[in-house]
């Protein structure tokens, strides 16, 4: 837990991409909401996007679950800044573990 | 239906990789049984593997479903030869649509 300003939440747990099985990576990306989150993050500077800032049609508990899956797949890193939880895509680390996979899902067609 | 020797089954329906959304491709590969099927097919000459020849811990109806998902994702082509339904991995076509994705799942770690 960070010492101040994070309210009552526990700090988010992360998995490094090096520890992510390929099945976990594929399953994390094989979801339209999570793919939208990843794509929006890819288009934003690191640590600028709070969890509530994404244009996805799900409620807060579902969104929280999706971010948990993305953290567990080594795709997203989060930290608390005051009342906001901000995000970055772990692009370089994920690319090193699964070369080309992010590029593929980022460049692919409009969400199909 | 092919005219002779195929029993009562309808010929399998296929989807060309060019018509496969990226989410469908990812979801098809994000399953341990299907990933095993794809890996075994990648290691076998085309049209040599009958559906019953794979080392996966599922019954026939589930296996049939998995092959249906793989056909629908443009990953596998099937044809009936007498009582056998034989398979090939659509490697070139799938690679053209999703460059690097098959290579990634084929080279990745032992099934995790």
TrEMBL record, chains A, B:
<dbReference type="InterPro" id="IPR036388">
    <property type="entry name" value="WH-like_DNA-bd_sf"/>
</dbReference>
<dbReference type="GO" id="GO:0003700">
    <property type="term" value="F:DNA-binding transcription factor activity"/>
</dbReference>
<dbReference type="Pfam" id="PF01022">
    <property type="entry name" value="HTH_5"/>
</dbReference>
<protein>
    <submittedName>
        <fullName>Transcriptional regulator</fullName>
    </submittedName>
</protein>
<keyword id="KW-0804">Transcription</keyword>
<dbReference type="InterPro" id="IPR036390">
    <property type="entry name" value="WH_DNA-bd_sf"/>
</dbReference>
<keyword id="KW-0238">DNA-binding</keyword>
<dbReference type="InterPro" id="IPR051081">
    <property type="entry name" value="HTH_MetalResp_TranReg"/>
</dbReference>
<keyword id="KW-0805">Transcription regulation</keyword>
<feature type="domain" description="HTH arsR-type">
    <location>
        <begin position="14"/>
        <end position="109"/>
    </location>
</feature>
<dbReference type="GO" id="GO:0003677">
    <property type="term" value="F:DNA binding"/>
</dbReference>
<dbReference type="InterPro" id="IPR011991">
    <property type="entry name" value="ArsR-like_HTH"/>
</dbReference>
<dbReference type="InterPro" id="IPR001845">
    <property type="entry name" value="HTH_ArsR_DNA-bd_dom"/>
</dbReference>
């Amino acid at each position: 837990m960070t010492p101040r300003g994070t309210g009552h939440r526990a700090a988010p747990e992360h998995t490094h991409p090096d520890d992510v099985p390929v099945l976990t990576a594929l399953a994390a990306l094989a979801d339209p909401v999570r793919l939208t989150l990843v794509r929006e993050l890819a288009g934003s500077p690191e640590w600028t996007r709070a969890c509530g800032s994404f244009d996805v049609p799900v409620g807060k508990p579902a969104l929280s679950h999706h971010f948990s899956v993305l953290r567990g797949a080594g795709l997203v890193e989060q930290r608390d800044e005051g009342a906001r939880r901000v995000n970055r895509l772990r692009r370089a680390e994920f690319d090193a573990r699964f070369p080309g996979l992010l590029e593929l899902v980022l460049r692919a067609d409009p969400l199909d």
